[in-house]
Amino acid sequence: MHRNYNDPTYKKFRTDVLKRDKYKCQMCNSNKRLNVHHIIKWSSASSLRFDVSNGITLCGFCHKKISGTESSYINFFTEIVRRNTNE
User: Fold this and answer.
1) pLDDT at 1
2) What is each CA distance from 47 to 40, 50, 54, 55, in whole angstroms?
3) Which residues pair with 58 in a beta bridge?
4) Closest to 77 in 3D by CA, of 32, 40, 22, 42
5) Where are the beta strands (DSSP E) in the chain?
């Protein structure tokens, strides 16, 4: 299944992640060119595609920086999300 960025469910997921992360990259605190990254890949976990706890806000630079090594960041990002959810 391909992502439909105009799907209201996807838009709500994205907005909810950005709000939780206070519209800042969770790696460098930038507020420029923000992306919502799926912690467990979109293609690997269909049940988590719209789960806010599976999303994290990254700037374009940091998103590109982790590209290809996403799996090594799962625990790191999960801990950040847990902390942000409990604030």
Assistant:
1) 59
2) 10, 8, 10, 13
3) 35
4) 40
5) 34-38, 55-59
CB-CB contact of 57 with 27 (8 Å): no
- The torsion angles phi and psi of 28, rounded to 5 degrees, stand at -125, 0
Helical axes 74-85 vs 8-20, angle rounded to 10°: 80
Query: What is each CA distance from 21 to 2, 13, 46, 79, in whole angstroms?
Result: 25, 12, 23, 13
From residue 70, give the alpha-carbon distance in Å to each of 28, 35, 62, 78.
16, 14, 11, 12
Give the SS3 label for residue 39.
coil
Residue 4, classed as helix, strand or coil, is: coil
pLDDT along the chain (87 residues), means of 10: 82 97 98 96 87 97 95 96 91
Q: What are phi and psi of 57, to 5 degrees?
A: -85, 125
